[in-house]
Automatic annotation (TrEMBL):
Keywords attached to this entry: Signal
UniProt keyword annotation of Signal present: yes
Range of residues in the leader sequence: 1-38
Originating species: Yinghuangia aomiensis
Name of this protein: SH3 domain-containing protein
Amino acid sequence: MREHTVRRGKLLRRGAQALAVLAVAVGTPAATATSAEAAVCSTSWSNKSDYKSGISATNVNYRSGPYTSCDPYGQWSNVQVFYHCWRYGTTVNGENVWWHVRKEGTQQQGWVLSSYLGIWTADPAWQC
């Protein structure tokens, strides 16, 4: 009987250890989000919108993906852009819709947080 109790105790401890490891793994979204963000930085996009508007702010980063962890290609100030499509990304000041855009008259393109753009829609038809 004692041997059965000892084995059962070891099994319960191992089970508790496994649950603790699982809880830590599930409770660390930052590590998982970083991997997911890295994959999204090289995400594909398509030209679904014919909308054009301006960025009236200065020194706005345009990035390789819709996350602040994605590399910035550069900055734009007071430019006209063509909107391609949008997707959800990093939330900045309560906003998480990012648009893939191209600067008018150039081939410069990248992802810009919608709060810097002259568009406030996340029309599902224009989602990447």
